[in-house]
Amino acid sequence: MSFPSFGPSTTAEEVAAVFCDVIRGKNVLVTGTSLNSLGFETARAIAQYANLVVITGYNAERLRLSEAAIKSEFPSANVRRLNLDLSSLAAVRRASKEVNGYPEPVHVLIHNAAATIGHFKRTVDGLESQIATDLIGPFLFTKLIAAKIRAAKSATYTPRVVALTSIFHEYAQGIDLADMEHPDPAKYEPFKAYNQAKSADILFMIELSRRSCGAIRGYSVSPGVALTNIQLKPESLDIFIASEIITPDLKPNRIKLSWKTIPESAATTLVAAFDPRLDDKPGAYLDDCNVADIAGPNILDADLPGRLWSTIENIIGESF
């Protein structure tokens, strides 16, 4: 069967329509699904076709609003809420226990949630907030529900895990594994931490695919730049304005960056989650709805994915 080509202006809804037959019958879990987010748009586009969409977040009221918005558009959609705070290892363990109690397997896990690019902040576990929320929490969550994911495998289908990264991973000057374990506020720079976390997400998907030996396929996705609620959080506004990413009147700075709409930004996630043409490309990195080269030599060390994996295992205190 042939499918159309996609590009930077493709929307999530367009991708979902093309792969509607692939999505049907699938159970999909999407993290970070507050209104005005890429995760919400991802869940919304999937919900009209999927058997089940699990939406997650750490704020129960925002989760309720997201569910209501999806159900108002697609009344027959099967939407389930899951409270999940990826910045807390204990909260991740609680949420994973709930998922493991579901009667259904998980065909697709989409790691969309991320911490805002803010000032240095420690989590309850003493980790730096961005690396904890963007990488370590998702790693532990994936590990703890891996049996649910593997249960979706059949003779004709292999489950997928998708992690959102960023085109800005190319600016990461390596990944400081020692600082990941023992964060030093004096070394912290907001965008440096972001770039490292997003680089690590790419390596996580590469190593997950390798270690799964065909049981799970991992993909990393650069969604592009879109104005969402994460840039408009009070604790990060000064950073985004000072970096000229958004203007003082809270508008996208279109002189400095090329911006996408939220539906356009969510499209690549759906390609990674459902496009059968990726079946023979586990571990691939996608940008603008297509497989792309990882930019920047700093994360291409062949040993780095394995060392990153071991470092995270040390942090969470258990092996995957």
From TrEMBL:
GO terms for molecular function: oxidoreductase activity. It comes from the Eukaryota. SUPFAM superfamilies: NAD(P)-binding Rossmann-fold domains. InterPro entries: NAD(P)-bd_dom_sf, SDR_fam. Coiled coil: none annotated. Keywords: Oxidoreductase. It holds the Pfam family adh_short. Belongs to the short-chain dehydrogenases/reductases (SDR) family. This is NAD-P-binding protein. The lineage of its organism: Eukaryota, Fungi, Dikarya, Basidiomycota, Agaricomycotina.
